Sequence to fold (419 residues):
Amino acid sequence: MKKVLLVVLLLVTGAITLVLMQGKSSQETVNYRLVTVEQGDVESLVSATGTLDAVTTVEVGTQVSGIVHEICVDFNDPVKEGQVIARIDTALLANAVAGAEAQLARSQAELKHAEREFTRTQALHEEYMVSDSEFNSVQYNLDSARASVQATEVDLTRARQNLSYATITSPIDGTVINRAVDVGQTVQASFSSPELFLIAGDLTRMQILVSVDESDIGQIAEGQTARFTVQAYPDNSFSGTVRQLRLQSASEENVVNYTAVVNVNNPEGILLPGMTATVDFLVETATDVLYVANASLRYKPDQETMSAALERKRSERAALPGGSDKPPHSPRGSRKGAADANRGMLWTLNTEGQLEMVPVHLGISDGTNTVVMGRDLEVGIQVVAGVSSSASTASKSSSPFQQQNNQGARRGPPSPGGM
Fold:
């Protein structure tokens, strides 16, 4: 019986030891997530949003008050410069013209009477039969009559001009994109002219007013190429050119923005005023270069692993003919590396599964990938983009004998601090 208990105790002790050893090994084993160095084109972009609009947009109003008598155009109608688009009732305006004409006739009659009176009084004054005071009074009446004629002529001109304003015409060639009045509606022209129509110019040439953050405006320049998409055609990409950078800034929620104007050709007429455009300004392009995912440039091993990699690299350099035991550039503690933003570090795995450093020079980035240059780089090299400990997988399994799934990752050796 004692032998049986001893055998059972030994089996239990062995199982516990095996579980502890495998749990410890799981905690120390590291799975590396790898990405590949690829070759192609990379573009540096600045992204922003804006609104499509016609290059020329005119609000058509009225300078006279009255009832809208006739509407000659509707939404989306093409119009030509000088074309009649609406008329206001002219009854009161025509009466004003008639009244001004009558007043002018009266003023002219008074002028003729004053001229005859002046001629008669002047002859008597020369014969000393009329006093100077009386002659001066007649002279004043003549001057007043002449001024009255001029004033009534101005009133008549104004009345006729107001009458002409009752016929509203298009100031440009374009398309009616808004009609704000209907027949029978009364419009009041007071301090500001009421908007009756909104006419857009040639819609085959449009513009985007893009709001650019102050941190990005320095990368935008006139003549720069811009690409954009609109929600109506998500699979289509359109292009344009930066025409203007406006100096006036706008602050919204403590963020300062500037407006960039992008010229756009719209020959098919599918782009409409008011559409929201997502714009990418093409800042710089690198063609046929090596690039890698940005995650690999952000990866840094722990200090112990990094020190081991540095020591191996120094040993390799010292073993070369004429080599030096001076350590290669370290991404930590190096003032020069911290000051030079164009330098970076990639990490690869050697044949033994150990981390090896690859110093690189950085080029432009599109936000996802970055151009990299280095003598140890070539297409197809796999570099570390992150790690995931197998211990997290082991903790999900209650059995120490369950096989773990490591697809998409490569297992490295136990960490330097492991037993």
